[in-house]
Amino acid sequence: MLPANLPTDLLRTFITVADLGGYTRAGEALNRTQPAISLQMKRLEEQLGEKLLVHDGRTVKLTSNGKVLAGFARQILRLNDEAVTRFRRTSVGGPLRIGLPTDYAVSFLQDAVTAFAHDNEAVDVEIHCDVSRKLLDDLHADRLDVAVALIDEANDHYLVRAWQEQPIWACGVNAQVHKANPLPLVTHPEGCEYRNRIVEALNRAGRQWRIAYSSPGITGMQNAVIAGLGVSALTRKTLLDGARILGEADGFPPLEKIRIGLFYKHPRQSSAGLKLVEHLVASLDEAADGDFMPSAHPTA
Predict the structure, then answer these.
(1) Domain check: are 136 and 268 in the same one?
(2) pLDDT range class, residue 41, cuts 50, 70, 90
(3) Which of 5, 24, 208, 269 sits in a 20 to 30 Å window from 137, CA-based?
């Protein structure tokens, strides 16, 4: 038996309902009536044999199966939109607000966005750098058009593509702070996924620790590590000269992987945004190596 095909028009309506929180708002965005939107969602649920959406007062929310489908649907629509924009070759312009995480390899991402801006001079690029949690709040509030951010279990809404990266322990080349007890740490503020990984690993190992330096920006942390103020979790992209890797032989347990995601709202996305998304996905895929690999599914 051949597999069933999921129509992209139904998936687009489904994601629009999910992103905007209702049939009426989705109908306005897609220039369709509320009954037409409702009928499309009924067809999609019948095709899959699962309940995907439930009413919560005036708001429509995803069921657990709906959340699973949303992850696939966002990938399918991204590829569909990428193919269409590639062949139409339409000119792009206008403002585009991009959020980049200070708690990740922001310089690498800035280089990718700068290259995009140089190739698309009609696009007015605005780059906003902040911790991932704040970027996602701004995306939800329509203060950003596209965001790259670290992912945790609770913030995969609007997630279109995800990658994994392996954090590594690091300290200054000549520093001996890794032998101190309690262990001095260089971290981002509380709530950062890197900090969560550090604390969880040390607590499991029964190692005492203290915060010696905290900064929302990666540059301050890199300098603090090199200066010997403490131990931190970085990545191979953010490990600078003057820092060295610590491993199990030094008494440091492996850290859980970090997930990095690309987020945007499909109904709100412009042609310039879609072109930037294509550029960022290509850049992140090209950067993939032994410790940075694309996830097969955004919610995996």
Answers:
(1) yes
(2) very high
(3) 24
- Domain count along the chain: 3
Flag whether pLDDT at 5 surpasses 60: yes
> Please, what is the average pLDDT of the chain?
86
Q: Which residue reads 């996924």 in tokens?
A: 193
Tokens of 141: 């509030």
Rounded CA separation 256/266 (Å): 31
In a domain, 300, yes or no: no
**Exposure of 14 by Cβ count < 10 A (0-12 exposed, 13-18 middle, 19+ buried)?**
buried
Q: 176 with 241, same domain?
A: yes
Burial of residue 287, with CB atoms counted within 10 A of its CB: 0-12 exposed, 13-18 middle, 19 or more buried = middle
Please report, rounded to a whole number, the percentage of residues in the chain having pLDDT higher than 70: 92
Are 169 and 255 in contact, with CB atoms under 8 Å apart? Answer: yes
Domain-embedded: residue 2: no
- 86 within a domain of the structure (yes/no): no
Q: From the CB of residue 242, how many other CB atoms can be counted at a distance below 10 Å?
A: 15
Q: Which domain holds residue 28?
A: 8-78
- For 154-185, the DSSP string reads T--TTEEEEEEE--EEEEETT--GGG-SSEEE
228-276: pLDDT as tens digits: 999 999 988 888 899 999 999 999 999 988 888 899 888 777 888 888 8
Distance CA 14, CA 254 (A): 40
34-41 long-range contacts, Cβ below 8 Å, gap at least 24? 37/13, 40/9, 40/10, 40/13, 40/14, 41/10, 41/13, 41/14, 41/17
CA angle 80, 81, 85 (to 5 degrees): 120
> What CATH number does the domain containing 207 carry?
3.40.190.10
For residue 55, give the CATH number of its domain. 1.10.10.10
Query: Among 78-87, 93-102, 213-222, which stretch is predicted with the lowest mean pLDDT?
Result: 78-87
